[in-house]
Amino acid sequence: MLEQMYDLSGKVAVVTGGSRGIGKAIALGLAEAGADILLNYSRSDKEADKVKKEIEKLGRKCVTVRANVGNFQQAQNIGKAAMNHFGKVDILVNNAGINRDRMLKRMTYEQWEEVIHTNLSSVFNCTKAVIDPLSKEGGVIVSVSSVIGEMGNIGQANYASTKAGIIGFTKTMARELAGSNVRVNAIAPGFVETDMLGTVPADIRETIKKDIPLGRFGTPEEIALATVYLCSPAASWITGVTLRINGGNYI
Ligand SMILES: NC(=O)c1ccc[n+]([C@@H]2O[C@H](COP(=O)([O-])OP(=O)(O)OC[C@H]3O[C@@H](n4cnc5c(N)ncnc54)[C@H](O)[C@@H]3O)[C@@H](O)[C@H]2O)c1
Predict the structure, then answer these.
(1) At what angle do helices 157-177 and 122-137 cross, to 10 degrees?
(2) Which pLDDT value is given to residue 171?
(3) In the prediction, which pLDDT does 119 show?
(4) Is residue 199 predicted with pLDDT exceeding 90?
(5) Average pLDDT in the 177-196 region?
(6) Which tens digit of pLDDT belongs to each residue from 117-131?
(7) Which of 15, 52, 187, 235 is most deeply buried (CB count within 10 A of its CB)?
């Protein structure tokens, strides 16, 4: 019975920003649980092709779509491609995100706007892109927020605003889509070993680590496990939550 509860065989999952880091781990995790994957990415064809091959090795189908999710039209193409190739969408994981950290005094409007579009407008854009098929069949949306969305952080006014916005969007969508049997949740990772964390200077990384009760950064796989859980029948009565995965960083 437990195995069945985590089985995603026959499901189709759209994962944004899936060519590396947390998105890649989520795409592979969902595939391992049985889902076919529409893998969105923005830059590297080579990275996306590598992930596609890894998914296919697991015996699942994978279609890659290059699109900037911050752009409304390009995001609609992701939904269209999923329908063309698979004929349905069961799961959407809004993972794509960037940071452009600066103290507010030095943050340009362009840095504000780029992060808002990529991290928050993208969640609106991609949800719109799949909302019709999802509402028809039922399904799941998981969006990647962050511990920073709840705590705030010096130099991250743009990033924190988007991650807090995702939580409000998630709660609203959970209410709007419950009647269509669509569950909508967010995850709020703490600091995870990816290229994004690599942009933080080494001394600041050490200071951050001291604030994590479990004493280490998370791995992309630990974030993927929680996401697969929220996407699976095991979480069938969970909607509107933000699941914190942070080694105790925010208790
Ligand atoms: N790494 C962390 O410590 C951490 C903590 C909390 C939340 N997060 C969130 O997790 C998500 C993934 O982060 P990561 O650490 O794996 O970062 P990453 O930089 O390794 O990967 C980000 C992914 O998003 C894609 N992307 C960026 N802009 C895009 C766009 N406009 N359109 C489509 N795809 C785009 C990138 O190509 C890449 O595949 C982000 O939303 C991030 O904010 C990360």
Answers:
(1) 20
(2) 98
(3) 98
(4) no
(5) 96
(6) 999 999 999 999 999
(7) 15
Q: Would you list the domain boundaries of the chain?
A: 2-245
Q: Per the residue annotation, which of 41, 109, 159, 250 is the catalytic one?
A: 159
Q: Is the CB of 219 under 6 A from ligand 1?
A: no
Rounded distance from Cα 21 to ligand 1 centre (Å): 7
**Are the beta carbons of 126 and 70 closer than 8 angstroms?**
no
**Which CATH number does 2-245 carry?**
3.40.50.720
Q: Which residue's CA is the closest to the ligand 1 atom numbered 34?
A: 17
From atom 30 of ligand 1, which residue's Cα is the shortest distance away?
68
* Residue of 194, 197, 243 to test ligand 1 pocket, by largest number of atoms within 8 Å of CB: 194
Expressed in angstroms and rounded, the spacing between residue 212 Cα and the centre of ligand 1 is 21
Question: What was the pLDDT predicted at 135?
Answer: 85
Q: Which residues pair with 143 in a beta bridge?
A: 94, 186
Q: Is the confidence at residue 233, as pLDDT, over 90?
A: yes
The label of the residue with tokens 């969902």 reads: 30
The CA distance from 195 to 35, in Å, is 26
Is 191 touching ligand 1 by the criterion CB < 6 Å? yes
> What's at 246, amino acid-wise?
N
Start-to-end CA span in the chain (Å): 33
Decide if 159 is catalytic: yes
Chain-centre distance for alpha carbon 250 = 20
